[in-house]
Amino acid sequence: MAFINYKSMPAELGTHDVTEVQYKSDDFIVRGLLVTPRKSVNRIVVYLRGGKGQVGRVRLARLLQFANDTTLVFAPYYRGNNGSQGHDAFGGADLQDVIAGVTILKALYPDVSVHLIGFSRGGIQGLLTYQDVQATSYIIWGGVTDIKLMYEERVDLRGMLRRMVGHPKKHLSAYEQRDALRLIDDTTPPILIIHGGLDTQVGIHQAYHLEAHLAEHQANYDTFYQMSEGHVPRPRAMAEVLERIRIWMDNIENRNVIKERH
């Protein structure tokens, strides 16, 4: 597998090249945004967007939050979005768009740590894929952890969920397939949970729900709760989140180096 097309984007960064890539996922050609350092690649961050369609679309400014001189950042658009073929499936077949993209990156940059970051709707996308791609760690940020819980609390999104997933009672198997927690035990890669206490788009009980499961199964995880913040932190709180993510990735990678030496 490989990226089959690169389109340079109008961004003069000096340190990174910004390209829109196309790649094969199932029978579709899908797209994603790639930010590649001009120096060596020592870390890969895969950002899993939230929302649907133009809401929550992948933006360069978001990816640059995770970039440094040796960090590559990639964000799949998901099928059916921004020129990608197919139809968005909200944690269904579109998961392959994540898996295929990460598989290509791991082939291009073997032995480089890969961290997934799932924001909002991207939370469930990451929970259902980070083990398949053998991620170094997974950061779930303001993320959905349970689609059924989302259906219950977001009355305004029920119509969209019925169209894309189905009704929780009439299409129970579709919701069971999107139940990520059943796949997580003590062998899972490390998880960092980030959430705002005033989040009204994805309630913090979604984070608590995941935390309780991880604790029960003695998985490797940590939490960073900002109880005075909403879905998107304010500037000072945002800086704290980004620093916490950086420290988390550094610590996980350093632990892995120590394990390898022993």
TrEMBL record:
<dbReference type="InterPro" id="IPR029058">
    <property type="entry name" value="AB_hydrolase_fold"/>
</dbReference>
<dbReference type="InterPro" id="IPR001375">
    <property type="entry name" value="Peptidase_S9_cat"/>
</dbReference>
<protein>
    <submittedName>
        <fullName>Prolyl oligopeptidase family serine peptidase</fullName>
    </submittedName>
</protein>
<dbReference type="Pfam" id="PF00326">
    <property type="entry name" value="Peptidase_S9"/>
</dbReference>
<feature type="domain" description="Peptidase S9 prolyl oligopeptidase catalytic">
    <location>
        <begin position="84"/>
        <end position="251"/>
    </location>
</feature>
